[in-house]
């Protein structure tokens, strides 16, 4: 058990949520009851990253658009804060385009975080319905990146 500001933190709910995270292959899970709230999140390659980046000026419509898809089961979400790359290198073709058929495990894009290129793989199978980000756009943890349906 850990102590923080005189309170004892019970590790059991953290371990339980971490187990759910692994079993369901999620990047984030939260639980709230009365005045108790807990969230467990992970990035790829064992990184746990949380945080937000300031919204770019004049990008309010993009933020509204992201909120529309935040709880959409078709959304592929960013597992970390970083910069999106839609192609493997400058001048190359995009990993996927709208209308492409994708399968689970296929690389959709890259999110660069702390100078590390992290391939983001599809957790869904189907057609790319919408790409919600632009190449080299800064993204937040949990931000919807594209829709697969």
Structure description:
Helix content is 15%, strand content 36%. It is an alpha+beta fold and 149 residues long. A hairpin with a 2-residue loop joins strand 3 and strand 4. 23% of the residues are buried.
What's the structural blueprint in terms of helices and strands?
Blueprint: E1 2-4, E2 7-9, H1 11-23, E3 28-33, E4 36-41, H2 60-69, E5 75-77, E6 82-85, E7 101-102, E8 107-113, E9 116-121, E10 126-131, E11 138-139, E12 144-148
The count of DSSP E runs of length 2 or more, i.e. the number of strands, is 12
Structural class: alpha+beta
Span between termini: 43 Å
- Percent strand equals 35-45%
**Low-confidence segments, ≥5 residues, pLDDT <50?**
44-64
What is the ordering of alpha helices and beta strands? Answer: EEHEEHEEEEEEEE
Gyration radius, in Å? 17 Å
Q: Describe the biggest sheet?
A: 4 strands, antiparallel
Global mean pLDDT:
78
The CATH C-level class name of the largest domain: Mainly Beta
Give the CA-based shape.
elongated
CATH topology of the largest domain: OB fold (Dihydrolipoamide Acetyltransferase, E2P)
Instruction: State the helical fraction.
Output: 10-25%
Q: What is the CATH-assigned architecture of the largest domain?
A: Beta Barrel
- Give the helix tally: 2
Q: How many domain modules? A: 2
Strand order of the largest sheet: 5-12-10-7
CATH H-level superfamily title of the largest domain: RNA polymerase II/Efflux pump adaptor protein, barrel-sandwich hybrid domain
Give the key terms.
single chain, 149 residues, alpha+beta, OB fold (Dihydrolipoamide Acetyltransferase, E2P), 2 domains, four-stranded antiparallel β-sheet, 2 helices, 36% strand
